[in-house]
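Researcher: Quick test of sequence recovery. Tokens follow.
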């Protein structure tokens, strides 16, 4: 789903410091299922919660749904603390959870009982949901007459019919045979990618690594006993995703390594920001100025004194320092006791032809300039649709003055365009993926 609205960086679900502790009456003690969970779910994204047994994944869903209360911390849904069953969410269970004495339509419609809608509206919503999951014509069938895959489709329809803000999936494919599960995952992904999905966001609880990579935009990795967040992985693969592609396999190998090595560090989740854009500041320097600085240092054999460089370039030190900061940030240079030295990659960049230098710059930007990287990732998720600059500026305005927000945006824009990560339409004021 494309993230183009200026309000989409406000979280639908915000989890702050949540722990869940159960007493042990027989011993007088207790055991902790969840410990200090901090997580936000934003519009337009699928978030997979990945972890082994004992990591509290299902307990976390029940807390979000308001079916169980945290022992500590607070869960907010659309900015309001969850203290009762959460009307903003709907859940699909592993076990189908259909009522055997009701037919398909009645099982779907039961989700609307609490809304007290006119019967005509109930029937319309039910038919729309069944059509969406491919069960049109099976309205009068009973669960015992359906295959496992068809029963789970009814489970999806029952969740879709309430049109939730957030759809929560508790290992919804794990009780199905391999082929049926694969078909349902594919249909689920198609609905999401086509923009026909009847929820704004999805939380998918799973222990299946490839399922998480196939469907999710972010994967939150849980540790066990007690359940806590180890970190998160952003899945920046373009959709539709191909399981046999080299990029998919590389991502799967990466996640497998993390899951099988509990001590492997993951980039921590930044909870202070309520945006999908990393707002770590960039030094204001154009790529051409960075390149010119590196070429000068390389020409004189380095290391070069900063004051000497300032004199040779005939620019004030205050104007030179942002360029130098950018070169250091991107891994092209090092500064020690006032002397500037090029790194190995800095030497390559300074001596490269134009296309090769752009390729090197692209690699370094993706490694060391998180604002540019996440702008690129937002465009990847937009599936080729342009994203207006206001989307990024409104996020930056939360962290900087209006003037500095604009300066940060233009610096990121210059770096991303030079790196070939995206294009900018100055008439429409939109960014889009580079078509090369």
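Model:
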């Amino acid at each position: 789903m494309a993230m183009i609205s200026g309000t989409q960086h406000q979280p639908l679900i915000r989890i702050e410091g949540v722990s869940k502790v159960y007493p042990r009456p027989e011993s007088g003690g207790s055991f902790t299922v969840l410990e200090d969970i901090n997580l936000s779910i934003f519009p337009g994204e699928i978030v997979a919660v990945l972890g082994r047994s004992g990591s509290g994944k299902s307990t976390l869903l029940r807390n979000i749904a308001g079916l169980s209360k945290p022992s500590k911390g607070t869960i907010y849904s659309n900015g309001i603390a969850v203290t009762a069953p959460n009307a903003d969410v709907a859940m699909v269970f592993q076990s189908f959870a259909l009522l055997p004495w009701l037919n398909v339509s009645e099982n779907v419609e039961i989700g609307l009982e609490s809304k007290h809608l006119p019967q005509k509206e109930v029937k319309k919503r039910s038919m729309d949901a069944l059509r969406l999951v491919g069960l049109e014509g099976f309205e009068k069938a009973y669960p015992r007459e359906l295959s496992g895959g068809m029963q789970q489709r009814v489970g999806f329809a029952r969740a879709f019919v309430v049109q939730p803000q957030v759809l929560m999936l508790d290992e919804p494919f794990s009780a199905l045979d391999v082929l049926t599960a694969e078909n349902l995952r594919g249909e689920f992904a198609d609905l999401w990618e086509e923009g026909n999905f009847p929820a704004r966001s999805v939380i998918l609880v799973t222990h299946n690594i490839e399922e998480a990579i196939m469907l999710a935009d972010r994967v939150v990795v849980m540790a066990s006993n007690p359940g806590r967040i180890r970190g998160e992985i952003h899945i920046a693969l373009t959709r539709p995703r191909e399981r046999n592609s080299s990029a998919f396999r590389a991502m799967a190998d990466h996640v497998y390594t993390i899951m099988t090595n509990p001590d492997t560090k993951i980039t921590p989740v930044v909870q202070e920001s309520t945006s999908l854009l990393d707002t770590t500041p960039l030094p204001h320097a154009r790529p051409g100025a960075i390149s010119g600085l590196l070429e000068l240092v390389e020409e004189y054999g380095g290391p070069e004194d900063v004051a000497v460089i300032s004199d040779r370039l005939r620019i004030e030190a205050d104007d030179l320092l942002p360029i130098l900061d950018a070169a250091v940030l991107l891994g092209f240079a090092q500064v020690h006791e006032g002397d500037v030295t090029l790194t190995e990659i800095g030497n390559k960049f300074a001596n490269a032809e134009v296309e090769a230098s752009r390729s090197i710059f692209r690699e370094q930007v993706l490694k060391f300039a998180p604002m540019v990287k996440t702008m690129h990732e937002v465009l990847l998720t937009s599936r080729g649709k342009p994203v207006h600059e206001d989307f990024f500026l409104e996020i930056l305005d939360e962290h900087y003055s209006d003037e500095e927000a604009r300066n940060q945006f233009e610096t990121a824009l210059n770096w991303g365009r030079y790196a070939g990560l995206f294009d900018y339409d100055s008439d429409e004021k939109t960014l889009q993926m580079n078509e090369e």
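Confidence is low (pLDDT under 50) at residues 1-8, 267-275.
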